[in-house]
Amino acid sequence: MSRNKAITLLAVGHACVDIYQGAVAALIPFFVAERAYSYAAVSGIVLAASLLSSVAQPVFGLLTDRRAMPWILPLSTVLGGLGIALSGLTGSYGLTLVFVAASGVGVAAYHPESARVARLVSGGSHSAMGWFSVGGNLGFAAAPLMVTGVVATGGLRLSPLLVLPALAGSTLCLPVLRALERTGEHGASGKAVEVGTDDKASFVRLSLSVVLRSIEFIGLSTFVSLYAQQRMGGGTAAGTVALFVLYLGGALGSVVGGSLAGRWDRVTVARWSYVLTIPAIAGTVFVPGPAFYVFVALASLALYVPFSLHVTLGQDYLPTRVGTASGITLGLTVSIGGMVTPLIGTIADATSLRTALTPLIVLPALSWLLFRGLPEPTPPRRVLTAREATGAAA
Fold first, then answer.
1. 188-203, pLDDT tens digit by residue?
2. Based on the structure, what is the number of domains in the chain?
3. Which domain range does residue 270 map to?
4. Which of 310, 344, 303 is nearest to 42 (CA)?
5. In this structure, are residues 295 and 283 in contact, taking their beta carbons and an 8 Å threshold?
6. How far is CA 169 from CA 174, 186, 248, 383, in A?
7. What is the pLDDT of residues 7-58, one digit of tens each?
8. If we measure between CA atoms, which residue out of 298, 317, 106, 332 comes closest to residue 220?
9. CATH number, position 146
């Protein structure tokens, strides 16, 4: 299978998984409307999706480093969709948390192994990994449209229909896994080994920066829909548009980030993207009128320019633990953002959404400080598998 075809299938599969991360935020206005949940209550739902995912993500990363688990991609995709599909069927807040948490575990299980497979089929290409990340961003962008299209027509009782993308995604990854199995590179014993020295100090700084970025993005995605309804007075439609713009800007940002990394180094691109994030979030919080949507798009674009670069930087800082690096940069740090949303929700209940979102303006500056002085890592040397070495000798 060609590299482009394999990355395309993986990117679409990535979209079918991350649509369920975006679906949590997209369901919030409907939980508020049908079940009268408070800001703190809906923040708890986001926390449920994030908490188990945060714990499970590094565990799956460690398991991936010890032994390749390509079979987990279709299974985790189905689990991610099934949890969201069931969350709308029960009026119990506790069961809603359980189903959303199960979806979060599915998403957590998917990302470390999918990043390992994507790196394998892409040969470590920054642009290819950028397109793989774009798939996830497009899934985020499609989530509010999918949820609104299904739930707005018949209420939360139609949520079982939301499992359909998971069924499609679990099927699309199978041809890539079969192709890797035929070449003998899908398992730990057959994959190429990358040799290098782990730079743990730089990886820790990178991870802290990505955690801050996660808080910014998850905080915005959780409340931007409700905030748009307040600012624009357009009901759920205004909120859906804001969430769609936020997620679509992320897809564009990943493409731009991969392109810019080909001209400048990844650390420089990421550092400047955080500088641009500061006024973009400030505009989102304070600028009135239709310009609100413009700043939402700019904030999303700036936050996602470094997204795929974080993944490849983490893999190059920890070349002997690619699964762990992928689980942290692609998954764990994304999940941690959801753990802070209850605090934002509590502040919003006590004051206002504007007051609760204002601290997000400061966080990109802290990410910029963490990126100052970070080295641009040298890609690790690739050691041929026995099969490749035999072919080269022949």
1. 333 444 556 888 888 9
2. 1
3. 3-393
4. 344
5. yes
6. 9, 19, 20, 32
7. 888 889 998 988 888 788 788 888 887 787 777 788 788 777 777 776 777 7
8. 298
9. 1.20.1250.20
Q: Decide if 25 contacts 222 (C-beta within 8 A).
A: yes
* Residue 336, token pair as written in the block: 């941690």
Count of C-beta atoms within a 10 Å radius of residue 154: 10
